[in-house]
Amino acid sequence: MRTVTTVLTTALLALAVVAPAQAAPTGPYRTDEQAAAYLEQTGVGTAFCINGHYSAHEKRTGRHFAGRKVVTRRGYVHYQFRSFACTVTDDIGTRQLYVQTRPGPWVVMVDR
């Protein structure tokens, strides 16, 4: 069972990395919802993403991309980030992914 899960996870991650650039808008900063939508478009299952500051990868490496505060014309404030800690759920189960946004294909890896 573990081998099957590993093979399927690897295959899904490979699909996420080679997803066409048009699937992701240009520019590095994104919202949590945009990161989740990107993963769902690549077919990895249902995703929920938060700021990469909470990821195991950034805690282990000590490297964090600073976020930015965006104020809309109507005065609404939201935050955008360059990295995300995502929880993905599908038929197999739940797993943690780490996502870095880039112009073109984004980097998607297992969050460990």
Based on the model shown, name its key terms.
single chain, 112 residues, alpha+beta, 4-stranded antiparallel β-sheet, two-stranded antiparallel sheet, 3 helices, 6 strands, 29% strand, globular, disordered N terminus
Oligomeric state, counting identical vs distinct chains: single chain
Low-confidence stretches at least 5 residues in length (pLDDT < 50)?
Answer: 3-26
Instruction: Note the total helix count.
Output: 3
Beta content comes to: 25-35%
Helix content: 25-40%
* Total discrete domains: 1
Q: Going across the major beta sheet, what is the strand order? A: 1-4-5-6
Structural class comes to: alpha+beta
Q: Which sequence of SSEs, written as H and E, runs from N to C?
A: HHEHEEEEE
Radius of gyration: 14 Å
Question: What this model shows, in words?
Answer:
This protein has helices at residues 2-17, 32-41, 56-61; strands spanning 46-51, 68-71, 77-80, 83-89, 94-100, 107-110. 26% of the residues are buried. The strands form two sheets. The chain has a four-stranded antiparallel β-sheet with strand order 1-4-5-6. The model is unreliable at 3-26 (pLDDT under 50). It is α+β, with helices and mostly antiparallel strands and 112 residues long. It has three helices and six strands. The protein has one domain.
Ordered list of secondary-structure elements with their pairings:
Layout: H1 2-17, H2 32-41, E1 46-51, H3 56-61, E2 68-71, E3 77-80, E4 83-89, E5 94-100, E6 107-110
